[in-house]
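Consider the tokenized backbone below.
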């Protein structure tokens, strides 16, 4: 009798965990749909006059990333594969990763990921409101979010990724400003409500973004304490998609530019699209 009760209890727990995981997936899809719906129905088209008053490095960035006459679609969908690490520089223990993402700077993003190393399987999602990952699809191993620290850290990631994949979201306006750091570095600052994030973009002579770096609010440090620390990444393998020239290979990590840097995120974009809601 006790054995039957034990097995019954285990079965109920597993059913509850599977149901919980399913609720997470529904929330991921709902937020992705909300963000996709933010794509403008009648987008303006890029014109060089929009950037005429910007510093030269910022102009060079836009002239490289957006073709004249391109519809300005700031919401991006991506699929990617690559490597993801939960370790450190000495023992990165990379896992094979595949992920889907909707990026709608400055309104939000959802990154849904599946990773595997041997028999170890990790899945879950990251967004401006949450971080939640599961081991084997049934064991919750990380749940965070819903506080100011998490939102601030996520906002930094979102603005930096707009530099990679959504230049239309960074055109100058009341909440987006640009300045020249030096002859080959542009700094963009994006404000949204109480959030403010600046990102420095190092450019080639043709305007190609080579790498980005910014002070990110993060607790990814030995003390596990939130603080500003350098985060950045290298960009390469650029491809033209719907009038935008974007990188399809990104390597990024904490403490960029220091001896402690190692890329915990190495991604190859396999698909990228800027959905046009008029279609």
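A designed sequence for it:
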């Amino acid at each position: 009798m006790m054995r039957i009760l034990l097995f019954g209890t285990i079965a109920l727990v597993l059913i509850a965990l599977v149901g919980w995981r399913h609720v997470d997936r529904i929330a991921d899809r709902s937020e992705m749909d909300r963000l996709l719906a933010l794509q403008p129905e009648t987008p303006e088209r890029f014109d060089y006059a929009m950037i005429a008053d910007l510093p030269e490095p910022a102009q060079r960035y836009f002239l490289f990333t957006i073709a004249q006459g391109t519809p300005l679609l700031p919401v991006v969908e991506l699929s990617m594969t690559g490597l993801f690490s939960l370790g450190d520089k000495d023992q990165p223990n990379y896992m094979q990763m595949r992920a889907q993402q909707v990026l709608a700077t400055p309104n939000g993003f959802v990154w849904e990921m599946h990773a595997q190393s041997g028999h170890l399987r990790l899945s879950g999602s990251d967004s401006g409101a949450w971080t939640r990952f599961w081991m084997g699809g049934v064991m919750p191993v990380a749940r965070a979010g819903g506080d100011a620290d998490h939102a601030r850290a996520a906002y930094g990631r979102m603005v930096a990724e707009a530099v990679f994949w959504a230049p239309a979201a960074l055109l100058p306006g009341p909440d987006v400003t640009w300045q020249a750091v030096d002859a080959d570095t542009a700094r963009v600052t994006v404000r949204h409500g109480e959030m403010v994030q600046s990102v420095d973009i190092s450019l080639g002579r043709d305007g190609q973004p080579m790498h980005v770096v910014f002070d990110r609010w993060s607790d990814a440090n030995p003390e596990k304490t939130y603080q500003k620390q350098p985060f950045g990444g290298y960009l390469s393998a650029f491809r033209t998609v719907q009038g935008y020239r974007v990188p399809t290979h990104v390597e990024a990590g904490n403490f960029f530019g220091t001896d402690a840097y190692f890329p915990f995120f190495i991604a190859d974009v396999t698909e990228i699209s800027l959905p046009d809601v008029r279609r």
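The domain at 2-39+50-273 is CATH 2.50.20 (outer membrane lipoprotein receptor (LolB), chain A).
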